[in-house]
């Protein structure tokens, strides 16, 4: 099931997808908007200095208006600017976590799946142990132990995230390893590391890529939760979970301080989920 | 079956052993000195040494791990630094409230998610399907702490339809005191016929349970839909259609029961996840469960308490997983052969 899907994804990604699943396209477009907002934040934010430590005490807690579309926070910073800069923090965390845990999981998974035997047993039992901790729980314990920072969030979540990819890759690689072309390569005397690298790995990647896009939302939510609990990003970094935490006591009187960062988390996680769902529907067809 | 049972039990024991080692490893990474945290900042050198000796911090790591495992199995989960009580007693007190909250949430998730999944499968590719798929994706994308704050602000502080925080009205403890059997307030109130506390607890439950239910409801709806669509493309469904059953009857009378199997095992898996998600919600609604205990422990860097919460939830997850596998092994012989 994996080989044809991979080649079509490789050949002409956008046009193939467009004809394939409108959900995937909608998710990709939505996610593209968030990525653009993150990349262009210093140029499109109305008050770029408010993304950092600037304060304007005289303009504190102004409701949304033409000058401040999302209003201002407790120290007079423009909420729209901070939401835009917050996209940088969240996407940075998501990309870093998915890259680190994806690579670690795929490497271990391919080894487990191709080698089989005791290597597979050991790796799978270790993933069992990690999977027994809900991601937020283990990253919570780790984040308490390490110093609160964006790096801590990345490390804590990546440590809890890789086993999923190890499992998935192992099961796909195990089935790829039984296919004819792998046997042929082995008969031709191709050394095992080369077989894994050239034949098993590329043919095991597609389901992992789909899972990675589905998981982007989960990473964003977990990271925001850690920052909300005070275990992640701290002032003056713009981070959505942190913004919600700082504004939560003001919700009844100054709703905009909490509402917009929360919506930003929702929209970003949603776009990852829609994209991932669309890709998965495409893959299972 | 006995062979399957033994193999599966052996696996579970291995995982629990790994969970204990991993928890121990994480807790030993703590930069602060637990002895200082326990003895207080003004402790003398002698008091510090006494605290170190008491916690066995002078021993080599393998010895500490061995002592830790021995104490755990002997029922000693350590002493909480912030409540100064045995962690096991604290957990025993806090867990029933979390169980009550998550139980209510999972019931809501099933009651909402399954019918939505059926509707989506029945009208596959049409408007009801698309709206169920989109709203279930929204439900799994919403940050729980934010949803909790929003519902609390609008429906409790704003409209006053529901109480703002707590498990039940504390003044009822005087007018109609509750006898404890299970420690789960709603259940105890129900079996002792304590209506004032029961109604108060239920109205306090609505908002936090709805927030926690969002994620499992979304997942259940998606899973029900997918399982029904697969089930209704099998041969037995074709036969039922040929016999003249309508599409709705094929789905609800024949396809639903086999399709619910994966949905129910899913519920066991999201149970532990929901408990942890509940941590954030309990903090907002001041619910006296594990989450509030965990939040207090985090604030005071209370390592034994955090280790206790972490272990408890991980072990719960392993047990839930095991229960589901064994149940499915009983119901479905094919599972045993795997």
UniProtKB/TrEMBL annotation, chain A:
The keyword Transmembrane applies. It is a multi-pass membrane protein. One of its GO terms (cellular component) is plasma membrane. One of its GO terms (biological process) is transmembrane transport. Its main location: membrane. It is found in: Cell membrane. The chain crosses the membrane at residues 23-45, 91-117, 129-162, 255-275. Belongs to the binding-protein-dependent transport system permease family. This is ABC transporter permease subunit. It comes from Microbispora catharanthi.
From TrEMBL, chain B:
It comes from the Bacteria. CDD domains: TM_PBP2. One of its GO terms (cellular component) is plasma membrane. Residues 95-328 form the ABC transmembrane type-1 domain. It is a multi-pass membrane protein. It is found in: Cell membrane. Keywords: Cell membrane, Membrane, Transmembrane, Transmembrane helix, Transport. InterPro entries: BPD_transp_1_N (IPR045621), MetI-like (IPR000515), MetI-like_sf (IPR035906). GO terms for molecular function: dipeptide transmembrane transporter activity. The chain crosses the membrane at residues 12-30, 101-123, 144-164, 205-228, 263-285, 305-327. Gene3D superfamilies: MetI-like. Pfam families: BPD_transp_1, BPD_transp_1_N. Its main location: membrane. Belongs to the binding-protein-dependent transport system permease family. This is ABC transporter permease subunit. The lineage of its organism: Bacteria, Bacillati, Actinomycetota, Actinomycetes, Streptosporangiales.
